[in-house]
Amino acid sequence: xxxxxxxxxxxxxxxxxxxxxxxxxxxxxxxxxxxxxxxxxxxxxxxxxxxxxxxxxxxxxxxxxxxxxxxxxxxxxxxxxxxxxxxxxxxxxxxxxxxxxxxxxxxxxxxxxxxxxxxxxxxxxxxxxxxxxxxxxxxxxxxxxxxxxxxxxxxxxxxxxxxxxxx
Length: 167
Fold this sequence. Notes:
With about 170 residues, the chain is α+β, with helices and mostly antiparallel strands. The chain has seven helices and five strands, in the order αααββββααβαα.
């Protein structure tokens, strides 16, 4: 057995990209089968409270640049649904998978990610403001506790490795 050191470990960005690279090449229906249940679970409380009702009849695109994922969602029946329809969405939220993960785990706040231009919104300004305000309101990490802990531990290990920007 060869001993591993922290410098031998891939970064969380490399792990995430590697783990879901194949998903990025999948068809839109596959993205919907995977991403929509996850989004509905992550946003379960705001959905139940009606805080996403402003999305009824509106289309928002989530574009994950490094994975080639373009998921279009809308609200119907109190749930986020796939809206793989033609035409331009009212709002496009664009970023890399790593930055969306930082947002979901609340390791970076939305303002920082937008200010550093790691996440971008284009389209309807009023709709974008409502989405950004919703992101600001989300408490804690949006991931389930077990996944939050696993991802958090991966970030800690990466940040402790020699040469890490946080050292």
